[in-house]
Protein: PKD domain-containing protein
Amino acid sequence: MKKLIYVCLLLIGFSINSYAQKETSWWHFGFNAGLNFNSLSSATASDATVLTGMPQAITGYVNTYEGCFTVSTYDGELLFASDGITVYNKNGAIMPNGSGLMGDPSATQSGIVIPRPRSLTQYYVVTVPVQGSTAYGIRYSIVDMSLNGGLGDVMSTSKNIVIKSGSVGENIAAVPNDNGEDYWLLHRTAQTFSVYAVTASGISSTPHQTITNTGIIYTGTGNNLGELVVSPDYTKLLAVNWSGQQVISAVFDPATGLISGVQTQTISAVTTTYGAAFSPDGNYIYVTSAYNTPQIYRNTWAGLRSGVASTFLALGPSNIKAGIDGRLYGIRCYRPAAGGAVVSTKDLYVITNPNAGGTVMKYFPDYLIKEAYLGLPSFPAGFIRIKPQSKPFACAAHLRTYGVEIDLSGGNAPVRLEWDFGDGSAVVSQTVSLSQTEYEQQHTYVGAGSYVITVTPYKADGTKAKVISMEANVIYCTLKSNRMTRSELLNSKQQ
Structure:
Protein backbone atom coordinates (compact mmCIF):
# COMPACT_ATOMS: atom_id res chain seq x y z
CA MET A 1 0.00 0.00 0.00
CA LYS A 2 1.36 3.40 -0.93
CA LYS A 3 1.85 5.87 1.96
CA LEU A 4 0.81 9.47 1.41
CA ILE A 5 2.64 12.16 3.36
CA TYR A 6 1.42 15.75 3.25
CA VAL A 7 3.63 18.70 4.15
CA CYS A 8 1.85 21.82 5.37
CA LEU A 9 3.46 25.10 4.36
CA LEU A 10 2.72 27.84 6.88
CA LEU A 11 2.29 31.35 5.56
CA ILE A 12 1.62 33.59 8.53
CA GLY A 13 1.39 37.35 8.11
CA PHE A 14 2.10 39.78 10.92
CA SER A 15 0.31 43.08 10.62
CA ILE A 16 1.74 46.02 12.55
CA ASN A 17 0.13 49.45 12.56
CA SER A 18 3.24 51.47 13.22
CA TYR A 19 1.63 54.88 12.93
CA ALA A 20 -1.77 56.45 13.29
CA GLN A 21 -3.99 56.02 10.25
CA LYS A 22 -7.73 56.61 10.56
CA GLU A 23 -8.02 56.17 14.33
CA THR A 24 -8.31 59.96 14.52
CA SER A 25 -10.82 60.39 11.69
CA TRP A 26 -13.81 61.21 13.96
CA TRP A 27 -13.78 64.32 16.16
CA HIS A 28 -16.48 64.84 18.80
CA PHE A 29 -16.11 68.09 20.72
CA GLY A 30 -17.86 71.20 22.00
CA PHE A 31 -21.59 71.36 22.57
CA ASN A 32 -22.38 68.32 20.36
CA ALA A 33 -20.15 69.54 17.53
CA GLY A 34 -18.00 67.27 15.43
CA LEU A 35 -16.11 66.50 12.22
CA ASN A 36 -15.91 63.34 10.13
CA PHE A 37 -12.71 63.05 8.07
CA ASN A 38 -14.03 59.97 6.26
CA SER A 39 -16.57 62.09 4.35
CA LEU A 40 -15.00 64.91 2.34
CA SER A 41 -16.37 67.67 0.14
CA SER A 42 -15.54 71.16 -1.08
CA ALA A 43 -16.39 74.28 0.93
CA THR A 44 -16.20 77.99 0.25
CA ALA A 45 -14.14 80.09 2.65
CA SER A 46 -14.88 83.66 3.71
CA ASP A 47 -12.55 84.98 1.00
CA ALA A 48 -14.62 83.14 -1.66
CA THR A 49 -11.92 80.55 -2.34
CA VAL A 50 -13.00 76.92 -2.56
CA LEU A 51 -11.13 74.40 -0.45
CA THR A 52 -11.42 70.73 -1.42
CA GLY A 53 -11.20 67.76 0.94
CA MET A 54 -13.05 69.41 3.82
CA PRO A 55 -14.34 67.06 6.56
CA GLN A 56 -18.08 66.74 7.04
CA ALA A 57 -19.57 68.67 9.96
CA ILE A 58 -21.59 66.32 12.17
CA THR A 59 -23.66 66.37 15.34
CA GLY A 60 -21.40 64.89 18.01
CA TYR A 61 -22.15 62.95 21.16
CA VAL A 62 -20.27 64.92 23.82
CA ASN A 63 -21.34 68.18 25.44
CA THR A 64 -18.24 69.78 26.88
CA TYR A 65 -16.54 73.12 27.39
CA GLU A 66 -13.08 71.66 26.91
CA GLY A 67 -11.76 68.14 27.38
CA CYS A 68 -12.88 65.36 25.02
CA PHE A 69 -11.50 62.36 23.20
CA THR A 70 -12.57 59.86 20.55
CA VAL A 71 -11.13 56.73 19.00
CA SER A 72 -11.83 54.93 15.74
CA THR A 73 -10.66 51.74 14.10
CA TYR A 74 -7.71 51.58 11.73
CA ASP A 75 -10.20 51.81 8.87
CA GLY A 76 -11.95 54.86 10.32
CA GLU A 77 -15.03 53.36 11.98
CA LEU A 78 -15.99 55.28 15.12
CA LEU A 79 -15.70 53.20 18.30
CA PHE A 80 -16.54 55.63 21.11
CA ALA A 81 -16.31 59.21 22.35
CA SER A 82 -16.14 60.78 25.80
CA ASP A 83 -15.92 64.02 27.77
CA GLY A 84 -13.99 62.28 30.55
CA ILE A 85 -17.08 61.45 32.61
CA THR A 86 -19.36 59.57 30.20
CA VAL A 87 -18.40 57.13 27.42
CA TYR A 88 -20.69 57.01 24.36
CA ASN A 89 -20.63 54.14 21.88
CA LYS A 90 -20.64 54.62 18.12
CA ASN A 91 -24.44 54.99 18.13
CA GLY A 92 -24.39 57.76 20.74
CA ALA A 93 -25.70 55.58 23.58
CA ILE A 94 -23.97 55.49 26.97
CA MET A 95 -21.96 52.31 27.34
CA PRO A 96 -22.81 49.93 30.19
CA ASN A 97 -20.79 51.19 33.20
CA GLY A 98 -19.93 54.14 30.96
CA SER A 99 -20.87 56.93 33.36
CA GLY A 100 -19.05 58.12 36.45
CA LEU A 101 -15.52 58.32 35.08
CA MET A 102 -13.38 60.85 36.91
CA GLY A 103 -12.40 63.32 34.21
CA ASP A 104 -14.06 66.71 33.79
CA PRO A 105 -15.56 68.58 30.79
CA SER A 106 -13.82 71.71 32.07
CA ALA A 107 -10.35 70.14 32.05
CA THR A 108 -8.13 71.19 29.14
CA GLN A 109 -7.56 67.56 28.18
CA SER A 110 -10.00 65.48 30.19
CA GLY A 111 -8.62 62.20 28.91
CA ILE A 112 -7.12 60.08 26.18
CA VAL A 113 -7.63 56.58 24.73
CA ILE A 114 -4.75 54.09 24.36
CA PRO A 115 -5.05 50.65 22.72
CA ARG A 116 -4.24 47.98 25.32
CA PRO A 117 -1.08 46.17 24.21
CA ARG A 118 -1.56 42.52 23.17
CA SER A 119 -5.31 43.01 22.82
CA LEU A 120 -7.35 43.66 19.70
CA THR A 121 -10.50 44.67 21.58
CA GLN A 122 -9.54 46.53 24.76
CA TYR A 123 -8.63 50.16 25.31
CA TYR A 124 -7.31 52.11 28.28
CA VAL A 125 -9.34 55.27 28.90
CA VAL A 126 -7.19 57.67 30.94
CA THR A 127 -8.97 60.60 32.64
CA VAL A 128 -7.80 63.88 34.15
CA PRO A 129 -9.91 66.15 36.43
CA VAL A 130 -10.30 69.92 36.51
CA GLN A 131 -7.47 71.89 38.13
CA GLY A 132 -7.79 72.33 41.88
CA SER A 133 -9.53 68.98 42.38
CA THR A 134 -7.77 66.78 44.91
CA ALA A 135 -10.20 63.85 45.03
CA TYR A 136 -9.75 62.25 41.61
CA GLY A 137 -6.21 62.47 40.25
CA ILE A 138 -5.23 60.63 37.05
CA ARG A 139 -7.14 57.38 36.62
CA TYR A 140 -7.81 54.78 33.96
CA SER A 141 -10.61 52.43 33.01
CA ILE A 142 -10.78 49.61 30.46
CA VAL A 143 -13.24 49.54 27.57
CA ASP A 144 -13.75 46.14 25.94
CA MET A 145 -15.18 46.40 22.44
CA SER A 146 -15.93 42.66 22.25
CA LEU A 147 -18.76 43.15 24.77
CA ASN A 148 -22.33 44.36 24.27
CA GLY A 149 -22.57 43.00 20.75
CA GLY A 150 -19.46 44.86 19.63
CA LEU A 151 -20.65 48.23 20.96
CA GLY A 152 -18.36 48.01 23.99
CA ASP A 153 -18.59 48.09 27.77
CA VAL A 154 -16.58 49.89 30.41
CA MET A 155 -15.46 46.94 32.54
CA SER A 156 -16.85 47.36 36.05
CA THR A 157 -13.89 45.49 37.54
CA SER A 158 -11.39 47.80 35.83
CA LYS A 159 -12.82 51.26 36.34
CA ASN A 160 -11.25 54.45 37.76
CA ILE A 161 -7.97 52.77 38.71
CA VAL A 162 -5.60 55.32 40.28
CA ILE A 163 -2.41 56.25 38.43
CA LYS A 164 -1.60 59.47 40.30
CA SER A 165 -3.61 60.76 43.25
CA GLY A 166 -4.08 64.29 44.56
CA SER A 167 -4.04 67.56 42.65
CA VAL A 168 -2.85 67.20 39.06
CA GLY A 169 -2.62 69.26 35.88
CA GLU A 170 -5.29 69.35 33.19
CA ASN A 171 -3.17 67.67 30.52
CA ILE A 172 -2.35 64.22 29.24
CA ALA A 173 -0.48 62.75 26.27
CA ALA A 174 0.47 59.29 25.05
CA VAL A 175 3.17 58.09 22.68
CA PRO A 176 4.17 54.64 21.40
CA ASN A 177 7.11 52.93 23.04
CA ASP A 178 9.91 52.11 20.60
CA ASN A 179 9.48 48.43 21.44
CA GLY A 180 6.55 48.45 18.99
CA GLU A 181 4.03 47.20 21.53
CA ASP A 182 3.69 49.43 24.59
CA TYR A 183 3.07 53.14 25.24
CA TRP A 184 4.30 55.94 27.44
CA LEU A 185 1.82 58.19 29.26
CA LEU A 186 2.99 61.78 29.81
CA HIS A 187 1.67 64.43 32.18
CA ARG A 188 2.62 67.82 33.65
CA THR A 189 1.66 69.09 37.09
CA ALA A 190 3.07 72.54 37.92
CA GLN A 191 6.84 72.40 37.26
CA THR A 192 7.12 68.61 37.01
CA PHE A 193 6.68 66.22 34.10
CA SER A 194 5.92 62.57 34.78
CA VAL A 195 6.16 59.55 32.50
CA TYR A 196 4.28 56.30 33.15
CA ALA A 197 4.70 52.91 31.47
CA VAL A 198 1.66 51.54 29.66
CA THR A 199 1.77 47.77 29.10
CA ALA A 200 -0.60 44.84 28.65
CA SER A 201 -0.75 44.41 32.43
CA GLY A 202 -1.95 47.98 33.02
CA ILE A 203 -0.64 51.50 33.57
CA SER A 204 1.96 51.80 36.30
CA SER A 205 1.18 54.04 39.27
CA THR A 206 4.91 54.43 39.87
CA PRO A 207 6.37 57.02 37.51
CA HIS A 208 8.98 55.76 35.09
CA GLN A 209 10.46 59.26 35.32
CA THR A 210 9.79 62.61 36.97
CA ILE A 211 11.67 65.71 35.85
CA THR A 212 11.30 69.22 37.27
CA ASN A 213 12.18 72.57 35.76
CA THR A 214 11.96 75.67 37.93
CA GLY A 215 11.76 77.89 34.84
CA ILE A 216 8.12 76.82 34.52
CA ILE A 217 6.12 79.59 36.17
CA TYR A 218 3.91 78.29 38.96
CA THR A 219 1.97 80.78 41.06
CA GLY A 220 -1.28 78.82 41.47
CA THR A 221 -3.63 76.33 39.90
CA GLY A 222 -4.00 78.39 36.71
CA ASN A 223 -0.52 77.26 35.73
CA ASN A 224 -1.83 73.68 35.50
CA LEU A 225 -4.04 74.59 32.52
CA GLY A 226 -3.00 74.18 28.89
CA GLU A 227 -2.36 71.32 26.48
CA LEU A 228 0.45 68.78 26.27
CA VAL A 229 1.26 67.30 22.85
CA VAL A 230 3.96 65.13 21.24
CA SER A 231 5.40 65.46 17.73
CA PRO A 232 4.47 62.97 14.98
CA ASP A 233 7.94 61.37 15.20
CA TYR A 234 7.53 60.95 19.00
CA THR A 235 10.72 62.85 19.88
CA LYS A 236 9.50 66.37 20.73
CA LEU A 237 7.34 67.53 23.59
CA LEU A 238 5.29 70.74 23.65
CA ALA A 239 3.25 72.06 26.58
CA VAL A 240 1.62 75.40 27.32
CA ASN A 241 1.24 77.13 30.67
CA TRP A 242 -2.08 79.05 30.74
CA SER A 243 -1.51 81.84 33.25
CA GLY A 244 2.27 81.70 32.90
CA GLN A 245 1.94 82.69 29.20
CA GLN A 246 4.57 80.09 28.47
CA VAL A 247 5.50 77.61 25.78
CA ILE A 248 7.37 74.66 27.31
CA SER A 249 9.46 72.38 25.10
CA ALA A 250 11.49 69.25 25.75
CA VAL A 251 13.12 66.31 24.03
CA PHE A 252 11.57 62.86 24.43
CA ASP A 253 13.15 59.46 23.80
CA PRO A 254 10.46 56.86 22.98
CA ALA A 255 12.98 54.05 23.45
CA THR A 256 13.89 54.93 27.05
CA GLY A 257 10.76 56.88 27.97
CA LEU A 258 12.85 59.78 29.26
CA ILE A 259 12.26 63.53 28.94
CA SER A 260 15.27 65.83 28.76
CA GLY A 261 16.21 69.40 27.90
CA VAL A 262 13.13 71.15 29.31
CA GLN A 263 13.02 74.81 28.18
CA THR A 264 10.52 77.64 28.53
CA GLN A 265 9.58 80.67 26.46
CA THR A 266 7.14 83.43 27.40
CA ILE A 267 4.73 84.96 24.89
CA SER A 268 4.12 88.23 26.69
CA ALA A 269 1.75 89.61 24.03
CA VAL A 270 -1.03 87.20 25.11
CA THR A 271 -2.78 86.92 28.47
CA THR A 272 -2.97 83.12 28.28
CA THR A 273 -1.58 80.21 26.31
CA TYR A 274 -3.88 77.24 25.80
CA GLY A 275 -3.66 75.04 22.69
CA ALA A 276 -0.62 73.57 20.94
CA ALA A 277 0.08 71.62 17.76
CA PHE A 278 2.99 70.42 15.65
CA SER A 279 3.11 70.57 11.89
CA PRO A 280 2.92 67.06 10.37
CA ASP A 281 6.66 67.08 9.68
CA GLY A 282 7.40 68.28 13.22
CA ASN A 283 9.39 71.31 12.10
CA TYR A 284 6.86 74.00 13.11
CA ILE A 285 4.96 74.57 16.34
CA TYR A 286 1.68 76.47 16.75
CA VAL A 287 0.25 77.90 19.99
CA THR A 288 -3.17 79.46 20.59
CA SER A 289 -4.37 81.91 23.25
CA ALA A 290 -7.90 80.65 24.12
CA TYR A 291 -10.78 83.17 24.30
CA ASN A 292 -9.11 86.46 25.26
CA THR A 293 -8.58 87.95 21.79
CA PRO A 294 -8.13 84.51 20.15
CA GLN A 295 -4.95 84.34 18.15
CA ILE A 296 -2.27 81.93 17.04
CA TYR A 297 1.52 82.13 17.29
CA ARG A 298 4.12 80.06 15.50
CA ASN A 299 7.78 79.16 15.58
CA THR A 300 10.06 76.57 14.11
CA TRP A 301 11.10 73.83 16.50
CA ALA A 302 14.74 74.72 15.91
CA GLY A 303 13.99 78.40 16.54
CA LEU A 304 12.06 77.68 19.72
CA ARG A 305 14.88 75.54 21.06
CA SER A 306 17.51 78.15 20.22
CA GLY A 307 15.61 81.00 21.88
CA VAL A 308 14.00 82.66 18.85
CA ALA A 309 10.78 84.39 19.90
CA SER A 310 7.47 82.93 18.69
CA THR A 311 5.70 85.31 16.32
CA PHE A 312 2.09 86.29 15.76
CA LEU A 313 0.48 84.46 12.86
CA ALA A 314 -3.22 85.41 12.81
CA LEU A 315 -6.31 86.26 14.77
CA GLY A 316 -9.10 83.72 15.05
CA PRO A 317 -8.45 80.23 16.47
CA SER A 318 -8.86 79.58 20.19
CA ASN A 319 -7.51 76.06 19.81
CA ILE A 320 -6.03 74.05 16.98
CA LYS A 321 -5.43 70.38 16.16
CA ALA A 322 -3.75 68.42 13.37
CA GLY A 323 -6.07 66.45 11.07
CA ILE A 324 -5.20 63.21 9.30
CA ASP A 325 -5.03 65.15 6.01
CA GLY A 326 -1.92 67.14 6.95
CA ARG A 327 -3.85 70.34 7.74
CA LEU A 328 -4.48 72.08 11.06
CA TYR A 329 -8.08 72.73 12.12
CA GLY A 330 -9.04 75.44 14.59
CA ILE A 331 -12.18 76.39 16.48
CA ARG A 332 -13.14 79.70 18.04
CA CYS A 333 -14.78 81.10 21.14
CA TYR A 334 -14.24 84.61 22.43
CA ARG A 335 -14.91 87.02 25.26
CA PRO A 336 -16.46 90.22 23.81
CA ALA A 337 -15.83 92.27 26.96
CA ALA A 338 -13.37 92.02 29.82
CA GLY A 339 -14.84 89.84 32.54
CA GLY A 340 -17.88 89.04 30.38
CA ALA A 341 -19.27 85.68 29.36
CA VAL A 342 -17.40 83.65 26.76
CA VAL A 343 -19.26 83.22 23.46
CA SER A 344 -19.07 79.89 21.64
CA THR A 345 -19.22 79.74 17.81
CA LYS A 346 -19.65 77.37 14.87
CA ASP A 347 -16.59 78.85 13.15
CA LEU A 348 -13.80 76.73 11.68
CA TYR A 349 -10.28 77.72 10.66
CA VAL A 350 -8.05 75.63 8.40
CA ILE A 351 -4.30 76.06 8.00
CA THR A 352 -3.54 74.35 4.72
CA ASN A 353 0.27 74.59 4.78
CA PRO A 354 1.45 73.91 8.36
CA ASN A 355 4.72 72.38 7.07
CA ALA A 356 5.47 75.72 5.39
CA GLY A 357 4.77 78.00 8.35
CA GLY A 358 0.99 78.25 8.24
CA THR A 359 0.85 81.29 6.00
CA VAL A 360 -2.37 80.09 4.32
CA MET A 361 -5.32 80.02 6.71
CA LYS A 362 -8.94 79.84 5.56
CA TYR A 363 -11.91 80.94 7.64
CA PHE A 364 -15.28 79.18 7.43
CA PRO A 365 -17.89 81.01 9.53
CA ASP A 366 -20.73 78.82 10.86
CA TYR A 367 -19.21 75.70 9.30
CA LEU A 368 -20.03 73.46 12.27
CA ILE A 369 -23.55 72.16 12.92
CA LYS A 370 -23.25 72.76 16.66
CA GLU A 371 -21.15 75.23 18.62
CA ALA A 372 -17.61 74.70 19.80
CA TYR A 373 -15.96 76.18 22.88
CA LEU A 374 -12.28 75.56 23.75
CA GLY A 375 -11.62 71.84 23.60
CA LEU A 376 -10.66 69.60 20.69
CA PRO A 377 -10.18 65.82 21.01
CA SER A 378 -6.97 64.44 22.48
CA PHE A 379 -5.27 61.62 20.58
CA PRO A 380 -2.07 59.62 21.15
CA ALA A 381 0.86 60.73 19.02
CA GLY A 382 0.55 57.40 17.20
CA PHE A 383 -1.30 54.10 17.35
CA ILE A 384 0.19 50.61 17.54
CA ARG A 385 -1.97 47.56 17.16
CA ILE A 386 -0.09 44.27 16.91
CA LYS A 387 -2.32 41.45 15.73
CA PRO A 388 -1.08 38.42 17.71
CA GLN A 389 -0.93 35.00 16.13
CA SER A 390 -1.53 31.84 18.15
CA LYS A 391 1.97 30.65 19.06
CA PRO A 392 3.44 31.42 15.62
CA PHE A 393 6.34 29.39 14.28
CA ALA A 394 7.96 28.45 11.01
CA CYS A 395 9.78 25.36 9.84
CA ALA A 396 13.43 25.61 8.86
CA ALA A 397 14.03 25.43 5.10
CA HIS A 398 10.43 26.40 4.31
CA LEU A 399 9.27 29.67 2.78
CA ARG A 400 7.28 32.03 4.97
CA THR A 401 5.49 35.33 4.35
CA TYR A 402 5.86 38.37 6.61
CA GLY A 403 3.81 41.54 6.24
CA VAL A 404 3.63 45.07 7.64
CA GLU A 405 1.27 48.00 7.34
CA ILE A 406 2.73 51.48 7.03
CA ASP A 407 1.49 55.04 7.27
CA LEU A 408 1.43 57.22 4.16
CA SER A 409 0.18 60.41 5.85
CA GLY A 410 2.00 63.65 6.57
CA GLY A 411 5.69 63.67 7.33
CA ASN A 412 5.73 59.94 8.11
CA ALA A 413 5.27 58.80 4.51
CA PRO A 414 8.25 56.64 3.38
CA VAL A 415 9.38 55.99 -0.18
CA ARG A 416 11.05 52.63 0.43
CA LEU A 417 11.39 49.85 3.00
CA GLU A 418 14.51 47.90 3.93
CA TRP A 419 13.90 44.36 5.25
CA ASP A 420 16.59 42.77 7.43
CA PHE A 421 15.67 39.19 8.36
CA GLY A 422 18.28 38.96 11.11
CA ASP A 423 20.04 35.84 9.80
CA GLY A 424 22.89 37.46 7.91
CA SER A 425 21.12 37.32 4.54
CA ALA A 426 21.15 40.31 2.23
CA VAL A 427 18.94 43.28 3.11
CA VAL A 428 15.93 43.53 0.78
CA SER A 429 14.84 46.94 -0.51
CA GLN A 430 11.18 47.47 -1.39
CA THR A 431 9.68 50.53 -3.11
CA VAL A 432 6.62 52.15 -1.50
CA SER A 433 3.64 53.20 -3.58
CA LEU A 434 1.35 56.08 -2.61
CA SER A 435 -1.68 53.85 -3.16
CA GLN A 436 -0.57 50.89 -1.04
CA THR A 437 -0.25 50.47 2.74
CA GLU A 438 0.33 46.71 3.10
CA TYR A 439 3.67 45.17 2.12
CA GLU A 440 4.95 41.59 2.23
CA GLN A 441 8.22 39.73 1.82
CA GLN A 442 8.86 35.99 1.69
CA HIS A 443 11.91 34.48 3.33
CA THR A 444 13.37 31.05 4.06
CA TYR A 445 15.40 30.49 7.24
CA VAL A 446 17.99 27.74 6.79
CA GLY A 447 18.51 26.91 10.45
CA ALA A 448 16.37 26.89 13.60
CA GLY A 449 16.48 29.80 16.03
CA SER A 450 14.80 33.00 17.14
CA TYR A 451 15.33 35.80 14.61
CA VAL A 452 14.40 39.47 14.83
CA ILE A 453 13.11 40.94 11.57
CA THR A 454 13.47 44.71 11.22
CA VAL A 455 11.74 46.82 8.59
CA THR A 456 13.19 50.30 8.23
CA PRO A 457 11.10 52.93 6.37
CA TYR A 458 13.08 55.66 4.61
CA LYS A 459 11.66 59.06 3.67
CA ALA A 460 12.42 60.85 0.41
CA ASP A 461 15.16 62.92 2.05
CA GLY A 462 16.96 59.77 3.19
CA THR A 463 16.03 59.99 6.85
CA LYS A 464 14.65 56.99 8.70
CA ALA A 465 11.12 56.74 10.06
CA LYS A 466 10.20 54.53 13.01
CA VAL A 467 11.69 51.03 12.66
CA ILE A 468 9.24 48.10 12.72
CA SER A 469 10.39 44.86 14.32
CA MET A 470 8.94 41.36 14.74
CA GLU A 471 10.20 37.97 15.91
CA ALA A 472 10.48 34.83 13.78
CA ASN A 473 10.46 31.57 15.73
CA VAL A 474 12.04 28.97 13.45
CA ILE A 475 12.27 25.29 14.44
CA TYR A 476 13.12 21.93 12.92
CA CYS A 477 9.84 20.20 12.10
CA THR A 478 9.36 16.43 11.77
CA LEU A 479 6.61 14.35 10.24
CA LYS A 480 4.99 11.41 11.98
CA SER A 481 2.91 8.92 10.05
CA ASN A 482 0.76 5.92 11.00
CA ARG A 483 -2.13 3.98 9.55
CA MET A 484 -4.77 6.10 11.30
CA THR A 485 -3.16 9.52 10.81
CA ARG A 486 -1.65 10.08 7.41
CA SER A 487 0.57 12.92 8.65
CA GLU A 488 1.09 15.16 11.64
CA LEU A 489 3.32 18.22 11.75
CA LEU A 490 5.11 18.20 15.09
CA ASN A 491 6.24 21.33 16.88
CA SER A 492 7.14 20.99 20.54
CA LYS A 493 6.69 24.73 21.10
CA GLN A 494 3.09 24.39 19.97
CA GLN A 495 2.24 21.56 22.36
